[in-house]
Amino acid sequence: MRHNLAMRILGIETSCDETAVCLIEAEGDFGPSFKWKVLGNALISQAALHAEFGGVFPNLAKREHAKNLVPLLERALKESSQPAVGGGQLTNSQLSTLNLILEREPELHASLIPFLKHRGKSDIDAIAVTYGPGLEPALWVGINFAKALSAVWDIPIVAVNHMEGHIVLSLMDTGNTESHSNVLQNVRMSGRLADFEFPLLALLISGGHTELILSKSFGTYELIGQTRDDAAGEAFDKVARLLGLGYPGGPEISRLAAESRREGIPLHTPALPRPMLHAPSAKGSGGPREGNFDFSFSGLKTAVRRLVEDKEVSDEDRMGIAREFEDAVTEVLLTKTLRAVDVYGANTVVVGGGVSANTYIRSSLSSQLEARSSKLLLPPPELATDNAIMIALAGYFHALKKEFTEPSELAANGSLKLG
Fold first, then answer.
1. Is 69 left (phi over 0), alpha (psi -120 to 50) or beta?
2. CB half-sphere exposure, 82, CA atoms < 13 A
3. Measuring CA to CA, which of 23, 229, 409, 411 is 20 to 30 A from 312?
4. Is a pLDDT exceeding 60 seen at residue 176?
5. Using one digit for the tens of pLDDT, what is the confidence trace for 254-285?
């Protein structure tokens, strides 16, 4: 029997090419009393399926989400030892509602109806689902899944901004949990809120986003910088393709760059540009001048293309270009972040998103911020990519304040901003 102050949140994530479902139990306000644990968690990555396209193909992602959501929900509930409450019979009214909600999700409809007929309501207090940003066809599958469960189980929905999920997860201290070697399937994972101070600066770096977000209190966000073209992760993928490497490109480039540094191979590669590195950082009357903390990585990709076009690229060339490219991206990210720390007096820097798993970027940020006595909060590398745990955690704090969304008003927003 659970603590009467605890809440159980079902998290659903389908913004890109990871399908994820989890169930967490959490209690306490946003402060020292807060604690949480994962009861059940399941995730499937579609990366291998999208590899032939060199990036995520939206309609394929949508199809895979529809195919995977119900099996993942079954797995998460099984891991959590969740008993079903009551029988699983559906009324004609419920079937009619489900048919309406899932009319554009035939594959999801085909698997969800039998599941709901077989299983009664689970002990869940709220459903947290990503509604943006991301690929809208993919987002809609998760949203309609959440609406269907909400309608049958009579459970409220929390609409979660995917980027807030990354921030909230990075604010968690999971240091007392068991090994993270297989954390995405580790139902014993638990944590508390890390020790930090506001204002905090969040650097969000992924395949679709490169942003600097300022937060002076929990739930308040100001976007102070963003990419003007390619995101950092997108640039990694595009450069990897130019070098004949696999998808996703980030791990491959990092592996070659690390090998180049470890072996001490001299760099024969021409220096790549550091785009927008020297944008001014002084404050104006209305805050920092426009563009101070913005990013641009498209030029880096173009510079690499010029290096490799019409040329036979050797293994040593690949290592040198990978190292110089990673150095360039890291220098830009660090310079912009450290400027923002100085301008806004940030006591804490939070890093999230798939690119935050990059070992070189993590270590570079850590050493630079330690010298400034600023705290750095990073997610475990295994949780840097998209997952449902971060959605459930962010959803909990909104559910605590009863910030629920009417299903009829819930819609996908692929270009949703934070702040």
1. alpha
2. 30
3. 229
4. no
5. 999 999 999 877 667 778 999 888 766 545 43
On whether the CB atoms of residues 349 and 200 are closer than 8 A, the answer is yes
Kindly report the average pLDDT of the chain as a whole number. Answer: 89
Query: Strand 348-352 vs strand 200-205: parallel, antiparallel, or unpaired?
Result: parallel
3-state SS, residue 373: coil
Phi, psi of 107 (to 5 degrees): -70, -40
Q: What is the pLDDT of residues 51-60, one digit of tens each?
A: 777 778 888 8
What predicted TM-score, i.e. pTM, was given to this entire model? 0.93
What lies within 8 Å, CB to CB, of 86 at 6+ separation is: 120, 121
Q: Within 24-135, where are the H helices?
A: 47-50, 58-79, 92-101, 106-118
- Residues 40 and 22 sit within 8 Å (Cβ to Cβ): yes
Nearest C-alpha neighbor of 228 from the set 173, 162, 291: 291
Tens of pLDDT, residue by residue over 95-119, are: 999 999 999 999 999 999 999 988 8
Given a cut of 60, whether residue 163 has pLDDT beyond it is yes
Beta strands 375-377 and 348-352 are: parallel
Q: Is residue 417 part of a domain?
A: no
> At residue 181, does pLDDT exceed 60?
no
Terminal C-alpha separation, the chain: 39
Asked whether the predicted pLDDT for residue 82 surpasses 80, the reply is: no
The Cα 241–Cα 249 span in angstroms is: 7
172 and 206 both lie in a single domain: no
Distance CA 45, CA 386 (A): 9
DSSP label of 407: G
Per-residue pLDDT at 216 exceeds 70? yes
Count: domains in the chain? 2
Within-domain flag for 354: no
Among 326, 346, 366, the domain-final residue is 346
What residues contact residue 4 under an 8 Å CB cut-off, 6+ apart?
none
Residue where the block lists tokens 């508390």: 192
